């Protein structure tokens, strides 16, 4: 085990007029362990393509993650995929990227545009070998990874972007590589990179994609810890226990809530200084406290963060707002969604009567529900989450 972390993110655009996407991404593992990502592109579009891509991605991801040889993966896919009644073919292209112990990359590609790898902001020309398996020409690559490596896989809808609309020959793979190099930001998350390329594809298509388009990204990054404390403990006798554990953690620290921030202020022996700026009128202002990276209000601010988290897992349409915002919710979102790999929540169980719903059991806490929902979203982002209640 090393101090690296594999982060994943993907964005899909449906072909104009289609409800279902004919591309599918399946991910197994991630973070500090082995990671397997499969991007499958089913023949055609709509329901049939979606079924082909779903079967391909799930089968290939399960087998590859289990260490099965590529020959067996391809043989199983050939025997399993249903035959299209129109084209008389069972066909789905695929890209499989495996990151083993955050040390070695193994890429298996069949008929998708070749995966782009950036290293240090420049395209890395990784080695490739080809062989024919069950009449399919498969590209294979194996090489050591380095911190900062960025893997960008795509369906052919990306290369077709703009074809006959804004470009004569579409957006070629080389042009996509140039776009990635020109917009390279070393700290950009995998999801942010996928969204950047997908947005450009959508623009080139004039807002009406002529083919299903999917961008899937893996990023090899250093581990970073963030701890968030919200709410005082249920028993005052546990105040010091929670504070000692919270401040003993390495990494960035966030304190949420008025009572909690006052506890932290007394523990550190430092003044809590409120900020009078309202960068976002919907989010209460932050405070400053020496020894804490960010101090915010509690439930209202965290509710906004949860809204951003749910959106980030789907369309990420609100990302520009929190990526550039100076309010507390935007700053928490950046720290949790983009900066952190390991997140520890310290949650006090003391009940605030103002947060109770009379239609729910008296033990229900909006604060705890928020943290649980936010933790679930962060797990889906591939973060390592630890919840501690006091």
Question: How does the SSE layout of this entry go?
Answer:
Layout: E1 4-13, E2 23-29, E3 35-42, H1 46-65, H2 70-80, E4 92-100, E5 104-110, E6 116-119, E7 122-123, E8 129-133, E9 136-144, E10 150-154, H3 156-159, H4 173-182, H5 190-204, E11 213-222, E12 225-230, H6 239-248, E13 252-256, H7 258-268, E14 273-274, E15 287-288, E16 294-296, H8 299-313, H9 319-324, H10 328-339, E17 342-347, H11 366-380, E18 384-389
Parallel strand pairs: 12-13, 12-17, 13-16, 17-18
Antiparallel strand pairs: 1-11, 2-3, 3-4, 4-5, 5-9, 6-7, 6-10, 8-9, 10-11, 14-15
Helix pairs in contact: 1-2, 8-10, 8-11
Structural overview:
This protein is of the alpha+beta class. It starts with a strand and ends with a strand. The protein has helices spanning 46-65, 70-80, 156-159, 173-182, 190-204, 239-248, 258-268, 299-313, 319-324, 328-339, 366-380; strands at residues 4-13, 23-29, 35-42, 92-100, 104-110, 116-119, 122-123, 129-133, 136-144, 150-154, 213-222, 225-230, 252-256, 273-274, 287-288, 294-296, 342-347, 384-389. Helices cover 33% and strands 27% of the residues. It has 2 domains: 4-222, PPM-type phosphatase domain (Phosphatase 2c, domain 1, 4-Layer Sandwich), CATH 3.60.40; 225-389, no CATH class. It contains 11 helices and 18 strands. It is elongated, with a radius of gyration of 23 Å. The protein has a 6-stranded antiparallel beta sheet.
């Amino acid at each position: 085990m090393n101090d690296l972390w594999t982060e994943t993110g993907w964005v899909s655009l449906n072909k104009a007029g289609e409800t279902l996407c004919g591309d599918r991404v399946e991910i197994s593992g991630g973070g500090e362990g082995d990671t397997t990502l499969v991007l499958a592109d089913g023949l055609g579009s709509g329901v049939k393509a979606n079924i082909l891509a779903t079967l391909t991605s799930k089968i290939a991801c399960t087998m590859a993650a289990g260490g099965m040889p590529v020959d067996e993966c391809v043989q199983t896919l050939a025997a399993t995929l249903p035959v299209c009644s129109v084209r008389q073919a069972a066909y789905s292209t695929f890209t499989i990227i495996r990151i083993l112990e955050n040390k070695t990359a193994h890429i298996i590609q069949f008929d998708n545009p070749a995966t782009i790898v950036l290293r240090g902001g420049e395209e890395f020309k990784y080695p490739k070998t080809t062989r024919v398996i069950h009449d399919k020409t498969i590209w294979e690559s194996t090489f050591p990874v380095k911190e900062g490596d960025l893997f960008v896989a795509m369906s052919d809808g990306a290369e077709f972007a703009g074809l006959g609309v804004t470009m004569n020959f579409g957006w070629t793979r080389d042009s996509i590589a140039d776009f990635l190099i020109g917009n390279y930001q070393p700290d950009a998350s995998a999801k942010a990179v996928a969204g950047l390329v997908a947005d450009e594809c959508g623009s080139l298509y004039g807002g009406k994609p002529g083919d299903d388009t999917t961008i899937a990204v893996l990023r090899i990054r250093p581990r970073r810890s963030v701890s968030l404390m919200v709410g005082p403990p249920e028993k005052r006798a546990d105040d010091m226990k929670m504070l000692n554990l919270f401040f003993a953690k390495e990494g960035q620290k966030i304190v949420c809530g008025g009572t909690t921030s006052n506890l932290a202020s007394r523990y550190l022996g430092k003044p809590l200084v409120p900020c009078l700026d309202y960068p976002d009128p919907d989010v209460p202002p932050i405070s400053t406290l020496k020894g804490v990276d960010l101090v915010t209000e509690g439930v209202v601010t965290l509710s906004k963060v949860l809204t951003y988290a749910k959106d980030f897992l789907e369309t990420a349409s609100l990302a520009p707002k929190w990526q550039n915002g100076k309010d507390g919710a935007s700053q928490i979102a950046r720290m949790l969604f983009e900066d952190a790999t390991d997140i520890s929540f310290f949650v006090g169980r003391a009940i605030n009567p103002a947060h109770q719903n009379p239609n729910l059991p008296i033990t229900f806490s909006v604060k705890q529900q928020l943290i649980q929902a936010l933790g679930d979203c962060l797990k889906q982002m591939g973060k390592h989450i630890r919840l501690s209640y006091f």
